[in-house]
Amino acid sequence: MSRYQPEWVNGREVGTGRRDAAGRYKAIADYLGDDMRGFHVLDLGAYNGYFSRRLAEDFGAHCVAADDYVGLTDAPGVKAVRKRLSMPELTSLGSFDVVLCLSVLHHLPDWRAYLDALVSMAPLVFIETAHPDEVLPKAKAHGQSREIEAAVDALAGAHGTMLAFTPGHDARHARPLWVIDRRTKSDPEPAPEPAAEPEEKPKPVKRPRRRASKPVGDAQ
Question: Is pLDDT at 89 greater than 80 in this prediction?
Fold first, then answer.
């Protein structure tokens, strides 16, 4: 039985998996751009930590990778939390700069509470949702995948966009990857006020020249 996704070890992809990890990572990394460095990441449902490890290597990110998968371990820049987090455990982690929630919500019966919590924990949230037509008998909330997709779409529509589609666990269907970006955009600098026109100096009034009067002499 193949693994869910490949591993990332010492700067390269190792092994194979049912999901395309490299394509999803590229979409996320391209969105982050070159200016973000050293940010803090929560990777919820990290599986083997593929995305956290790559973010730590490429961006110097400080990552908390949470999953109950036995193969999840610490790595440089990555702290592994090997358990399925309850809502109180999740919110106790505090705030982050970036959250990853890739193909997780359809496994959570109380997905709405988790979605709201994750969006409140970071200004930049990447979410992948399952395609409603995938056959996923082990996913507890997959029957609500249309509602999940609609909820994420509504959030992204106001504060983000859809970044990519990649084949799902059921490869006949593609899963959307969204970004919800609530970062405060710097206000544009106000346009400079037009320079005041120089005051026009009053033109001197031309006065008629007075002709000198002849002196009045003695009568002759």
Answer: yes
H or E element, residue 98: strand 98-102
Comparing CA positions, the residue from 1, 2, 3, 5 lying closest to residue 175 is 5
Bridge partner residues of 102 (DSSP): 128
Q: Report pTM.
A: 0.83
With both helix axes pointing from N to C terminus, report the angle between 21-32 and 50-59 in degrees, rounded to the nearest 10.
40
Reduced to 3 states (helix: H, G, I; strand: E, B; else coil), residue 194 is coil
Give pLDDT tens digits for 132-150.
999 999 999 999 999 999 9
Q: Residue 165, exposed/middle/buried by CB under 10 A (0-12, 13-18, 19+)?
A: middle
The mean pLDDT value of the chain amounts to: 88
Burial class (CB in 10 A: 0-12, 13-18, 19+), 106: buried
Instruction: Write the DSSP symbol of residue 219.
Output: -
Q: Report the pLDDT value the prediction gives residue 1, as an integer from 0 to 100.
A: 52
Nearest Cα to Cα of residue 176 among 164, 167, 184: 164
